[in-house]
Design goal:
Blueprint: E1 2-4, E2 8-10, H1 14-22, H2 54-68, H3 72-85, H4 88-94, H5 100-119
Antiparallel strand pairs: 1-2
Length: 120
């Protein structure tokens, strides 16, 4: 029982609440799920038969997050990990192509490496 002031008392039991819910009109304005839970799972690209380096796999995954999922945070994490695993040859090949986010992170990575080399 709930009391709201002196004149208002509402009695509520689990049975009355259940009855009220079942008596609700069928055209309620509650949002319905647009898709099944299985369809809401993010589909990450699976590796193909060719052997790719960790750098290329992470870079491809970053491209997927940025271009397909519009997830800049996820793309940034993948690109940063890719740059950590990259060989010097891979870094030299990849600085001029890729998404704007990847190029910006690659440029920053190059500057950090140059700064570290000059300080040591």
């Amino acid at each position: 029982m709930w009391s709201f002031g002196q004149d208002q008392t509402i009695e509520s039991t689990p049975e009355t609440v259940a009855d009220e819910l079942t008596d609700a009109p069928s055209d309620t304005t509650r949002p319905q799920p647009a898709q099944s839970p299985e369809a809401a799972v993010v589909k990450v690209p699976r590796p193909t038969g060719e052997k790719k380096s960790k750098f290329q796999q992470l870079r491809d995954l970053g491209d997927y997050y940025m271009l397909d999922e519009q997830d800049l945070a996820g793309a940034t994490r993948c690109y940063q990990m890719a740059l950590r695993y990259a060989t010097a040859e891979e870094l030299n090949q990849s600085t001029s192509d890729g998404t704007w986010l990847y190029r910006a992170l690659a440029l920053d990575h190059d500057r950090e490496n140059e700064h570290a080399d000059n300080q040591g």
